[in-house]
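Q: Now give one record:
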Amino acid sequence: MQKSQSSSKLLKLVVLSLLATMSLVLFFISFPLPLLPPYLKVDFSDIPALIAGMIFSPAAGVLVVFLKNLMYFVAKGATDPVGVVANFIAGTLYVFPVAYLYRKYSGINSIVIGLTIGTVVMAVVMTILNYFIILPAYGMFVGVGFTDTAKWIAVIGGVLPFNFIKGVIVSILFVPLFFKLKEWIEKKKVPTSAA
């Protein structure tokens, strides 16, 4: 019994590591959106985290987001810790509701509702955090002060629409992918009591 539990934990660790690595690779494949600041780039790195959250638990999805950001930070060097923290928060806000609802209710309805909630929560919370914490922290880090007007323009003209559009794009891509992987996810899904 103990041997089977430890091999199950090892398998979970291996799967999470693979999903985090896939997430990192997808993180490097990014593109800016027209009419928005070029430093805001859409990527699909939250998709492996969504899968991890659906198979294991919402915490596993968040762990994949964390590992991706940690590996990115190490790979790129300590150039922008503020951006890495912001990406972790945004990914967590997006992934957690989807994983939580799917683990609780299963089915496509829980996925769609979770993706909708995740997109809206990510857009709204990241807007507030950028205005009050992230932009001021970034300004301190690079030695630039942001006026209230500059912060307002940055969050309303950049951060809010970007996070909303990114959430919609990733969601639109994830739904058909979920249909293709649904049977596999259901087979691999760890019961809630064992997650």
About this structure: The radius of gyration is 18 Å. Helices lie at 2-28, 46-55, 58-76, 81-105, 107-142, 148-188.
